[in-house]
């Protein structure tokens, strides 16, 4: 293995093997599907008129089960050069994406690195000999802002397979030797694109095409037998790259490799990139998903984040979409980037909540709509228990909440904000989104005030309860926010001075301690146990505080 080149002087020669991201959970051979490459045998491929191709559960699937364990067919690892790199990046193989400390460097471009000599030879044979000259001159954007390079790689992969687009009859979905038919069949959004976007794609494709014609011998090798007109080949390859550009927009997997050598590994990227994974491309989007994508060293893994019922579609939340945004903001993202309007259960719930926001006093779980009865009275109608009920109490409570909000807008008083929360608990059910906004304000007020850490804990836990009810506690942004929440709480000056708690406050602290323990288990969904070294100090501080509080409580009870 070669020595370190001048481009990578920050790499330590005295590195330890366990510093590299090698954590990986394999899919057992007995659990692999016979019909879908890289997938579990608990999944089935189906088609529908509204959702297209999709994967559904053939049986009930438990939480934390591996559903797909796929090697990317086409991979773009960025940055390709340290001049746009991150200071603490783990360097990754240009061919397979594996995290490496010792590597081979391409002698031509002196930019791309490879984990083994065989990886270098494979890359050079299939595609790197055609891109090497362009990479020397930063011909493609290495800050990863478009899909022109991915489209080129997809086309070069197809050329290495002689553009064979016919899958084996009666075979499985996907092929180890030639996955190009399944890349070729991926959906595009070309018909939905506006003219400026189409012009951008055509310009990027034209640049790639001119580069291949003038700076490489690609078309000479492609037409060695002189069986085709060269101009026809130019048009065919150009059309393929336009198709692949649109496919990459719709079906790429955004890679954010966790850097396990640093503290909160999930929050630190040890390299980024894009991957084309035909099996994972079968998964549709949902703002309340039942599965999540996890990036390992050279695999892309999909795991269930909650129990999935038999017949339920497997869904993920696309990386570009933040499920914690409001429904209107999420729809702007899906419409602008992916050209569809999300109609998942969470989006439908938010829209339904705007029409029927009230809590039914009879069933306490249904959402009720305000309607006018024949007698002229205002009543509510519950869509859960299908019954009407008087709306007088809710109307009066809503008036009080409106008055308190008007006063709060002038005084910004915590007391009035707490009163609004009490009113909203009567008007809306406990996991309703309107309560989320009030709890967030109360949390921020108490945290910045800093005098009542138990109140900070109380409203923080209420926030996460609502989010987890509507999405999932294993949704990565929620998990990361919860770890930050714990860090903020134990960092409060008054936290270590908690004393003289009443029964309600002791219950809040007990719930808080339980959550701290549970989050350690949740982190192991994404990280190996030995990489959660940043978490024990949080547990220790919380445990010490809890022991002190309980000792004082037991001492008080003994004196009484």
From TrEMBL:
Q: Which Pfam families match?
A: SET (PF00856)
The cross-references to InterPro entries, in alphabetical order and at most eight, read: SET-MYND_domain_protein, SET_dom, SET_dom_sf, Znf_MYND
Q: Which GO terms describe its cellular component?
A: cytoplasm; nucleus
Q: Which residues form the MYND-type domain?
A: 93-132
**Superkingdom assignment:** Eukaryota
Q: Where is the SET domain?
A: 41-319
Q: Which UniProt keywords apply?
A: Metal-binding, Methyltransferase, S-adenosyl-L-methionine, Transferase, Zinc, Zinc-finger
Care to name a GO molecular-function term for this sequence?
A: S-adenosylmethionine-dependent methyltransferase activity
Among the GO biological process terms of this entry, one is:
methylation
Task: Output this protein's name.
Answer: SET domain-containing protein
Q: Which organism is it from?
A: Acanthoscelides obtectus (Bean weevil)
């Amino acid at each position: 293995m070669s020595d370190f080149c001048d481009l990578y002087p920050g790499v330590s020669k005295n590195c330890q093997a366990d510093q590299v991201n090698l954590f990986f959970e394999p899919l057992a051979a007995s659990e692999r599907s016979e019909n879908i490459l890289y997938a579990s045998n608990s999944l089935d491929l189906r088609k529908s008129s509204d959702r297209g191709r999709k994967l559904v559960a053939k049986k009930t699937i438990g939480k934390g089960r591996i559903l797909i364990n796929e090697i990317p067919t086409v991979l773009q690892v960025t940055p390709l050069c340290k001049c746009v790199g991150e200071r603490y990046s783990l360097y990754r193989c240009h061919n397979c994406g594996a995290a490496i400390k010792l590597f081979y460097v391409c002698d031509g471009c002196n930019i791309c690195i490879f984990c083994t000599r065989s990886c270098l030879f494979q890359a050079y044979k299939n595609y790197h000999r055609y891109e090497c000259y362009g990479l020397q001159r930063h011909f493609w954007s290495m800050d990863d802002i478009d899909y022109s390079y991915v489209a080129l790689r997809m086309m070069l992969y197809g050329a290495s397979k002689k553009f064979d687009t016919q899958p084996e009859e009666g075979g499985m979905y996907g092929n180890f030797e030639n996955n190009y038919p399944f890349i070729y069949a991926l959906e595009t959004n070309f018909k939905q694109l506006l003219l400026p976007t189409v012009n951008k794609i055509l310009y990027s494709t034209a640049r790639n095409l001119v580069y291949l014609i003038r700076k490489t011998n690609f078309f000479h090798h492609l037409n060695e037998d002189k069986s085709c007109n060269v101009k026809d080949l130019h048009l065919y390859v150009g059309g393929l790259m336009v198709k692949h550009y649109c496919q990459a927009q719709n079906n790429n997997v955004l890679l954010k490799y966790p850097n396990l050598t640093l503290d909160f590994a999930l929050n630190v990227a040890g390299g980024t990139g894009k991957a084309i994974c035909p099996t994972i491309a079968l998964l549709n989007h949902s703002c309340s998903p039942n599965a999540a994508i996890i990036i390992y060293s050279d695999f892309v893994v999909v795991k269930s984040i909650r129990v999935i019922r038999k017949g339920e579609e497997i869904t993920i939340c696309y990386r570009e979409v933040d499920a914690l945004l409001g429904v209107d903001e999420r729809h702007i993202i899906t419409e602008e980037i992916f050209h569809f309007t999300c109609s998942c259960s969470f989006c439908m719930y938010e829209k339904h909540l705007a029409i029927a926001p009230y809590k039914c006093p009879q069933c306490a779980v249904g959402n009720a709509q305000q309607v006018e009865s024949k007698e002229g009275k205002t009543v509510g109608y519950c869509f859960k228990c299908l019954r009407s009920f008087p709306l007088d109490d809710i109307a009066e409570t809503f008036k009080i909440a409106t008055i308190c909000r008007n006063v709060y807008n002038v005084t910004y008083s915590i007391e009035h904000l707490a009163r609004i929360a009490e009113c909203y608990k009567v008007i809306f059910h406990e996991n309703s989104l309107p309560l989320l906004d009030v709890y967030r304000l109360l949390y921020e007020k108490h945290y910045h005030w800093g005098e009542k850490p138990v109140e900070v804990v109380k409203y923080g836990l209420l926030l996460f309860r609502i989010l987890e009810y509507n999405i999932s506690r294993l949704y990565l942004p929620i998990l990361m926010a919860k770890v930050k929440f714990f860090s903020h709480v134990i960092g409060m000056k008054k936290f270590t001075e908690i004393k003289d708690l009443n029964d309600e406050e002791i219950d809040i602290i007990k719930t808080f301690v339980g959550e701290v323990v549970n989050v350690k288990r949740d982190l192991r969904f994404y990280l190996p146990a030995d990489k959660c070294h940043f978490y024990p100090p949080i547990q220790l501080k919380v445990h010490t505080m809890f022991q002190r509080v309980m000792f004082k409580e037991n001492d008080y009870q003994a004196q009484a």
